[in-house]
Specification:
single chain, mainly alpha, 42% helix
Length: 55
């Protein structure tokens, strides 16, 4: 059995902005206006992909 925590499934937008941005952008169900609203709520820009932070 694989144990996954909530943080494994849903990245924190403040700790991992690039991963969060990709999660929102790759959702096939969410409309563009919803994606823009979700990203704006956490201070990210729909049109600009954040730089990936090396761990």
């Amino acid at each position: 059995m694989i144990n996954q925590t909530k943080s494994d499934l849903f990245p924190d937008p403040f700790d991992e902005p690039n991963r969060y941005w990709h999660m929102i952008m790759n959702c096939p169900v969410t409309k563009e206006w919803q994606k823009r609203k979700q990203l704006k709520a956490v201070g990210l820009d729909f049109d600009i992909e954040p730089e990936e932070i090396a761990a």
